[in-house]
Automatic annotation (TrEMBL):
InterPro entries according to UniProt: His_Pase_clade-2 (IPR000560), His_PPase_superfam (IPR029033), Histidine_acid_phosphatase (IPR050645)
Cellular component GO terms held in the UniProt record: Golgi membrane
Top-level taxon of origin: Eukaryota
Cellular location(s): Golgi apparatus membrane
Protein name as catalogued: 2-phosphoxylose phosphatase 1
Amino acid sequence: MDVLTALLLVHLIPVSTAKNGVSSKSRKRIMPDPVTEPPVTDPVYEALLYCNIPSVAERSMEGHAPHHFKLVSVHVFIRHGDRYPLYVIPKTKRPEIDCTLVANRKPYHPKLEAFVSHMSKGSGASFESPLNSLPLYPNHPLCEMGELTQTGVVQHLQNGQLLRDIYLKKHKLLPNDWSADQIYLETTGKSRTLQSGLALLYGFLPDFDWKKIYFRHQPSALFCSGSCYCPVRNQYLEKEQRRQYLLRLKNSQLEKTYGEMAKIVDVPTKQLRAANPIDSMLCHFCHNVSFPCTRNGCVDMEHFKVIKTHQIEDERERREKKLYLGYSLLGAHPILNQTIGRMQRATEGRKEELFALYSAHDVTLSPVLSALGLSEARFPRFAARLIFELWQDREKPSEHSVRILYNGVDVTFHTSFCQDHHKHSPKPMCPLENLVRFVKRDMFVALGGSSTNYYDACHREGF
């Protein structure tokens, strides 16, 4: 892969920024709120939201339903928690972040010590290869590249505990003597996704029996399993990357900023840009570590704001141009198709896979959000969670409905397939058949052309 392609992919992938000090109420919001948000997009505010520093437990809308509704199954998609950068700013010292887990260090979680103890007993866990060779928790005094931090572990312990309180204690989704086939776990082959999944699982099912836990390995960040070959999806992605590239070329302030930063670290501008400096700056910002300096000066907050502002503009244009939507509809189809299959089996009274967890990346969640029509949703922050709940109406047992929540906010009626439903229904959720019809048919209609199935849409001629 050449540097330009890598850079463009990077811009599609780990995109955004953050720092400490946001109240839990403002962190929780995912759709723009004209009343409480800054009137002009504020790059530092957006960065703070992205960081998702654990604070007081957030209030959430998961599990809310009229009393005559019964929770049948839950499907959770998470982005891994806070991590060390994947890139280094050339000729600067790496930020010094400690990736050992220390119970009395901030951010703190009451289950952190027990989590470490439980993970240290899991060396015999039998996960699908190559997951069985990965460490079960972060444990380096100086974080390795891409390693989950203590913040990342705490974010998911918190997520897991919140879901436990709602789905297990309140709704009794799983029996106390739950069996291995009642939960489905899948992760990519990165230590940060496996460890994030385990942290959430430990918050959800403390001191779980290792013999009942089996993580499947997913080689693709799109979780497309055996349906990954899709030439038209890749064509959409290439066009989207071209759009990103052209937008960057138009931004003279961005080029000037990269030039200034390149002089500070004494490398060509092209080399600095290829090192994706925002990824490393984000780590400094989230962990309140000052930006790097050299004898030529310091990288500073103004540089950070310019790059972050460009990312926000890029996301705005991305929504308008719709190329990413085409990529997303094809990219998200396999995982959504799998999810509705699991839901349909649950409606038939099957008791397997009532709780599914996919531990993934921003490039997994972002296409799913886009495909669902949640164009206003913020780019997936660290430890973002997207949840599908399946409910049965006890008064009409043959009727099943879904709710969709993003970071605890109910976004069901923001989805393209359920926008209009609430206008003529008092129920606070969407009929399952709307979601099924969307995945089986309407996703392809939205792409234009005459395709009515995934294979044809992926191999359409003349795109």
